[in-house]
Design brief:
heterodimer, A: 672 residues, alpha+beta, Transferase(Phosphotransferase), domain 1, Phosphorylase Kinase, domain 1, 4 domains, 5-stranded antiparallel beta sheet, 3-stranded antiparallel beta sheet, B: 225 residues, mainly beta, Tumour Suppressor Smad4, 2 helices
Chain lengths: 672, 225
Amino acid sequence: MAIMQQWIRPMGWKKTESLNRHPNLDRRVPNMGFKLAAGDKPLNGYVIRRGLGMGGFGEVYFAVSDSGKEVALKRIHRNLDVEVRGASHCLNLRHPNLVGLYDIRQEDAEQAWIVMEYIAGESLMDRLDRNPTGLPTSEVLQLFGQMAAGVQYLHEQGIVHRDLKPANVFIENDWIKIGDYGLSKFISASRRGGQTESVGTFHYMAPEIGKGEYGKEIDIYSLGIMLYELLTGKVPFEGESSQEIILKHLTADPDVSILPLPFRSVVLKALAKDPSQRYSSVSAMLEPLGISIDKNGMATGHPVIQNPNTTHSPTPNPSPRVATPQRYREPIANFVADALTELQKQFNRIPYGSAAQALAIIGSILFLVFFGPAIIPFIVMAFFLYVPYYFIWYFLAGQYYPPTIRVSHPLQPVRYVKNAPPAVRPQPPRMRPLSFQEWQANQRNELANKPFANRWREWTGSTLLASSILGVLTLAGYLVSLAAYPAWPGTTSFIAIGVWTSAMTLLSTWTILFFAKRWENRAEDSLIYRFVMLTCGLALGGIGWGLSEFLMVPWDSITVIRVVPKSLDWSGFYNNRNPSWPAFVAYFGLLLGSIRWWRQGDVLRRYRFSIFSILWSVMVAALVCCVVYFPTPWCLILAGATSALTQMATQSLDSRQRPRFVEVNVGEGKTT
Amino acid sequence: MRRNGEIRSATMKLPSKSRFWLRLRANATRNVMMSSQSVLWIDGVGGYAMCDRETTIIGGASAAADVPLRLMSDLPSKTAIFHHQGQDHLIEPIHSVWLNGQEIRTTSLLSSGDRIRLGSSVELAFSQPTQLSGTAVLMLRSGHRWRGAIDGALLLGHSCLIGPSPTAHVCCRHWEKDIVLFRHRDQWMVRRDEYTEDGSIRTASTHPLKLGERIQGQGYSMTWL
């Protein structure tokens, strides 16, 4: 208790009744007792219009000078001869985030007036009153950066504000202006009666003030409290009485778990009990928030809130690392999925567009070309073994798996206090993770605004790009096969099949590119899209047959894996082991209809280039081959090349750059 | 009378459905010319122009003194006229006036929450917290200022509510009770709660509001100038 008494005394507070009244009210309500009315002329040359508010040491009035200059007049009751001389340093401070001081006028021995800049706006306290659950993060960063810039300037000038609180911070057209600076140092020393001090200051006062220490760390502490209040709408240390608040300042730890991530460590460090543990300067406090103070003393910089991973957080109680959720319950499927994800990650770790990536792609394509026919039967076999296994697993173990229960918020006990102001409910976190799908949906809405001409230009660009890439790939493939099969490349049959595969790959890619571009700005309707693709596939099959007839491709002699028995002409699909038009039509129709190709050419796909997509396409093509017996490996090469080409030729917005968090809407919070 | 003729010709351009307001206009023109600005200065809250005529002209800073609402901006001296009849408020454009993002050429009905843009940059928010009182509030939403250092304008109907309640025309968050201003014949009256000496019992009192009067009470004070 003694330390608390000491804590109060240096600043000259009397322990009066009003200190113990409901603190929530006291923090907000200034005691309005304006002695002067509109039209009064307390100071030569100024006419009072109205009272503005109660400052730390007297009323503040809005006045207009005879020539029309709008000013704020602050009345100081006592003789401040010494202080006024000391304050002349503050009079000449100049910073965009500080309320300008024009003059100090002494009309008689008992009364002095400070003539200040008039801010035609609200105070931060009003802004917080209107937003009881805190402000949006972007606004917080914008306001806080300016506020800190003003305080930093004061510190550079050797002045500690000592009385930073929302009531002393003003907002005019998004400009922050800090008021009441400098003077508090001189005035608090001479204050005896403590008559008009607003109690609210307790909420923003550093613990070491009790010991009479007034370093600039107390401003850092107040800034920390205000940052907390801006984000959540409430101060970290609340209490029923002033003593309780003081005690919390001295002992309690702030609950930072409800703050978004980069703010947690900043608030924790700024609110350290030991002043030496706090940030040593305001700019050091701004640094983790991605704000810096430029040479003009203005806050600049881009907030890093979008990318919380970049901030290392020295949080004492770090939140438990979120484990990646199990995607499949079945262990084998899960293992395969994990392995593929890992493969994908490894691939994406290679810098995009580098030679290593190109090598990896070409390597895997070659691997597929040469060993694919040998591997695919195993894959197909594994699949056929897996299906019965899955059913057995499902009936034996699967259905007894406990259902996953999603707990949104643990229930909070509610305290009922008689005749008390409505209890402040614990605020849910203001930010929640933004899922990939939501990001996609948002972006799609924005893509809807893209002019038709732009989309057309993009599509033309990607078709041309696809053509040139295919040209290069064909040449590379020719060279490779020249080396591998010296007997082949010269033959007409090889040229025919090469031209056929390239041409059909290009046509399929163009079709996919067209629809991917056409559907990029609307929500996916998978069934309809598949149907459209299937129809196009049928048409492509017709073209493929025509081309094959024109080139006279000797399918029989170039088929590597024979699945169709020589004797069987499979229901009219084959004629003497050469596919006839139904085989073409069925193969292309099934291939285009069974894969969601438009996703691979989507601007908003998850990865710019995904090996998994190519493998998947090849695998589906293999399955289609099992149904239609289309000559391998040409059909597989075609599918893989189409997938690779589609992804290469379309640009994509990098989903890894997307914002990881989104603010929780008011309505959204209620539904959980 | 040149002014009268000017406005007449302006109203003639209106489509027939707006002709109804013509009669109203003719009655009001005389009043407008005599109207001068009176302001309610509420301590700790702001200064509000009291516009109690049926028509109120709004214009730029260079306007003559007979224009009650003047903005420190590049607007012509008469940009628009606010009319009010009963509980309805209307805006008649004289120069470029935009209502909720659309340019208007005829007198249009205003509803609470409307955004009015005058010229290229001045933005006003029009609100009617209670439909019944017939009073509307105009607040600037762009970075401009009113002439005369006021914070907003009250287009007064028959009553006006000042205080902490959400339906108040002028929101005074720190007050304990609302104060009602209402029209009685040609006089504005104030109704408010008054405290007895011991501060416990309060009685509602009504008295006429005079220009230059200071109204003071528990936790509030204001002056009508």
